Amino acid sequence: METSKEHHDAWESFWRDAPDKAGEVFWDARPDLTAARHLTLFREHLPAGLPLVDVGCGNGTQTVFLAAHYRPVVGLDLSAAAVERARTLPGADRVDFRQGDAADPAAAERLHDELGDAHVYVRGVLHQSPEPARAAIAESLVHLLGERGRAFVLEPAAAAKDVLMGLMARPGGPPQRLAAIFGHGIAPMEMPDDAVPRLFTAAGLGVLASGATPLTTTEPGADGAPVELPSNWLVVGRNG
User: Fold this and answer.
1) How far apart are CA 55 and CA 74, in angstroms?
2) How far apart are CA 85 and CA 132, in angstroms?
3) Where are the alpha helices (DSSP H) in 146-194?
4) pLDDT tens string 162-187
5) Is the pTM of this model over 0.90?
């Protein structure tokens, strides 16, 4: 299946209206607080030598960082507006940013025909995808990985809902960075912690490693430090 027009349009309008200034999108944290920390978790499982695809790359902040550690790197996002922004980043010349639908397995198969087996980085994509699209995204990853590739997948844990609800209930109203997401019709969807590994095992992939790590946002908490969402990660692939 492919992503619905409604879901696509919501993301397109979100990125079209998002502020240009770095750090103004809720999940657009600095790479040293995000992808760099994830790299320490997955480096041994995703060895250099294969291409890397950042699925749901958004405005490319993390993708450009990852391009210093893998070559070639493809940044893939549903929103053309996000891809346009990503292409203006310093270091974007090291990344092939493309508009594409992760819920289109046929497109993923064509990309595999082009790249060969690839590693995949997926951060917070599944919980913001309609449930029917999640199995299609998992199938797309199967195509992209092939026999040798592995994917690092990170999603907010069920406990993250309490953190988000606390932000929404602030006395002065929800923070603008979070309100903008809901205002464009994008809402985090319920996803039990065991749903992510089950999704990939159902697609024929094995869970090779897993753990928990906080997902840093750009929203400051009461102490001034960035709010962190409880999150779970796993590495999946065909081989052990």
Assistant:
1) 8
2) 28
3) 160-168, 176-183
4) 998 888 888 888 888 988 988 888 87
5) yes
